[in-house]
Automatic annotation (TrEMBL):
PANTHER family in the cross-refs: GLYCOSYLTRANSFERASE
Descriptive protein name: Uncharacterized protein
Family indicated by similarity: Belongs to the UDP-glycosyltransferase family.
Highest taxon of source: Eukaryota
Lineage summary: Eukaryota, Viridiplantae, Streptophyta, Embryophyta, Tracheophyta
Length: 307
């Protein structure tokens, strides 16, 4: 079974897509052939992610390339959100611009003619192309249900000049978020945010959505997310970054996992910053020290760690 995976132009998306591809190959050794499609400048990101899974992964996950769209204001070779600096918004805009990004991806799909397609949220036209070719198409969301639900609710709701915003309609207690902490695209005027509407519609149109989270996580938000997006079906397949069983992995367990295994049950809180957040090492250290200082007066022990 040949599966073509098409991640968004960002390291924080490509990494989970590689993890997912490795898991797909390991699920049916010799029977599943995953191929990851990226633009040329992102091949190095793919290879780096594959190296984390050991030598065997490079033989089970293939890489194909397609040209990055020509984008005004971006220097040649800048094809990744993580390396675009202040021009990162141009990467976002190009990714959801059907006139720019669809032609090369459609040509690749028709040329490769896979048995199934796994596409990122941004590329909403993939489900239509797959339908024409008679292929199943699944959206793989690297963002878990809670974050996805919050972003969908807040789309068009942020008022310029507001210091914080309440997220209405969530199960559980009220949640208020500082506007400065929201993804950049949510801080744009509502008319600009509307460009993501076709992406939301595509999720409801395709075969289903796979989330990088496990079924027991975010239960209430999971169900609310499915209802809000009118999804046909959902698959909860993560965390895809966890190491494979030794027989399938071909590599040793990570120091992070070994440390976590040494801790008592329910003693560790995991805080993740990713996807749209460009956070430096210094900022991460300040966040860790701030979290640690918050609990200095608490009887519970605390420790700040970074990986």
């Amino acid at each position: 079974m040949r599966i073509l995976l098409i991640p968004f132009f960002a390291t924080s998306h490509i990494g989970p897509y590689i993890d997912f591809a490795v898991r797909l190959a390991a699920a049916r050794p010799g029977a599943v052939e995953p191929t990851v499609a990226v633009t040329p400048a992102n091949v190095a990101v793919v290879r780096s992610a594959l190296e984390r899974h050991g030598p065997a992964a490079s033989g089970t996950v293939r890489i194909v390339t397609y040209p990055f769209p020509r984008v005004d204001g971006l220097a040649p070779g800048v094809e990744n959100l993580s390396t675009a600096g202040d021009d990162a918004w141009r990467i976002d805009a190009a990714a959801i611009d059907e006139a720019l990004s669809r032609p090369a991806q459609e040509a690749l799909l028709r040329e490769r003619s896979p048995d199934a397609v796994v596409s990122d949220y941004h590329f909403f036209w993939t489900s239509s192309i797959a339908a024409e070719l008679g292929l199943p198409c699944v959206v793989f969301s690297v963002i878990a249900p809670f974050s996805g639900l919050v972003m969908r609710i807040l789309a068009g709701a942020v008022v310029s000049g507001s210091r914080d915003v309440t997220v209405p309609g969530l199960p559980g207690p009220e949640i208020r978020i500082p506007v400065s902490e929201l993804p950049e695209f949510l801080r744009r005027p509502a008319k600009d945010q509307g460009t993501f509407s076709p992406c939301n519609a595509a999720q409801a149109r395709c075969l289903g959505v796979a989330y990088n989270t496990f079924a027991g996580m975010e239960q209430e938000y999971r169900e609310a997310n499915v209802r809000a997006k009118s999804l046909k079906r959902c698959y909860f397949v993560g965390p895809v970054s966890l190491p494979l069983p030794a027989a399938a992995a071909g590599t040793s367990e990570s120091p992070c996992i070994r440390w976590l295994d040494s801790r008592p049950s329910c003693s560790v809180v995991y805080v993740c910053f990713g996807t749209y957040a460009a956070i430096s090492e210094d900022q991460l250290r300040e966040l860790a020290l701030g979290l640690e200082a918050t609990y200095l007066q608490s009887p519970l022990p605390s420790r700040s760690c970074g990986w």
